[in-house]
Write a structure and sequence with these properties.
The protein is an all-alpha fold and 81 residues long. The chain has helices at 2-13, 15-33, 39-49, 53-80. It has one domain (2-80). The protein starts with a helix and ends with a helix.
Length: 81
């Protein structure tokens, strides 16, 4: 749910950063799922190399917010348990 909310907000304000974030996120998920396959990592690197300076800030902010949301959820879950 938190991922969907963040994704919708970023998409409204910066569609390019949203698309780049989604691509990098998918590559990282594919890499995490099969670490012996070098292709997702190569695609992630190539995607990152192609990000313009103007769009890099939006992508970095999106990742920072996503990781902060994940951390907040984990803390809330631990406290709840």
């Amino acid at each position: 749910m938190l991922y969907d909310i963040l994704s919708d907000i970023v998409d409204q304000y910066n569609h390019i950063a949203h698309d780049l974030y989604e691509r990098l996120w998918k590559h990282s998920q594919n890499r995490a799922g099969n670490q012996s396959d070098p292709e997702p990592h190569k695609r992630m690197i190539q995607c990152a190399k192609n990000i313009s300076p103007e769009n890099s800030l939006g992508v970095m902010r999106t990742f920072a917010l996503a990781l902060n949301l994940i951390n907040a959820f984990e803390v809330h879950h631990r406290v709840r348990n």
